[in-house]
Amino acid sequence: GAVVSQHPSRVICKSGTSVKIECRSLDFQATTMFWYRQFPKQSLMLMATSNEGSKATYEQGVEKDKFLINHASLTLSTLTVTSAHPEDSSFYICSARGTYRNEQFFGPGTRLTVL
Amino acid sequence: GDSVTQMEGPVTLSEEAFLTINCTYTATGYPSLFWYVQYPGEGLQLLLKATKADDKGSNKGFEATYRKETTSFHLEKGSVQVSDSAVYFCALSDLSGGSNYKLTFGKGTLLTVNP
What we know:
The complex is a heterodimer of chains A (115) and B (115). Helix content of chain A is 0%, strand content 55%. In chain A, the strands form two sheets. In chain A, strands 2, 4, 5, 6, 9, 10 and 11 form a seven-stranded mixed β-sheet that branches. In chain A, strands 1-3-8-7 form a four-stranded antiparallel β-sheet, with no helix packed on it. The termini of chain A are far apart. Chain B has 115 residues and is mainly β. The relative contact order of chain B is 0.34. At the A-B interface, strand 5, strand 9 and strand 10 of A face strand 6 of B.
C-alpha cells in the first residue's frame, strides 16, 4: 500500500514553455502533498506544501508564480513550471501524507530538462 | 530551526564489509527520525524509522537507534551487498502542530559497494 506515482517520468521542453507534473496517491487519500527539487548530487529541497482544497505554502525563495501548485483532490496534486528556463532543469519529487499516518510516501520523481 | 548533518561521502566498500553512516540532528521538539534510500534515477524509499528515544529501526539488515542524549541516528549494516549501492538520506520530521510533518533532510551519502 501507500503508492505514489508521478507523471511524466521524464520531460524535455523548450525554453519559455510550461510543463505540468502530476503526483497521484494511488491507494490512499493524501491530505498533504509536498514538492521537492533535487539538484545533481545534492539533497532534496522542499519547494512547497499543499493541503487539499487550499493554497500551497511555499518555502522561502521559491517563486509561487513560477511554480504553480494545485491540490484539487485528495489523490492528485500538480506542479506547473511556467515559462521554463534551463536553470529550472532538475529532478522534481513529490510526496504525500495521509490523514492518519505520520509518514511521507515519495513518488519516483520527474526529470525535467529545459533546452 | 531543525537541521540534519550526515557523514559526507562518497563511501566505497567491498562486499560483506561493515557499514556505518553517521547522522546527527538538531531539533526544537521531539522529532521522528528516518533513513531514506535513493537508487539511481529513482525517488526515495523509506528504509527505516524511529519515533522516540531508544527506538531501533531496522529493515533489510540495516539498523539505526534513536539516541536522544547524543542527538544521533547512525545507520549501520553488518555486511553490505553490491545491491546496497545507493544514496542514503537521514531525515527528521517535526511532529508539532501546524508543521504539516515537514521532513528535513541531510545532504545524502553516496555508498558504492564493489564485488
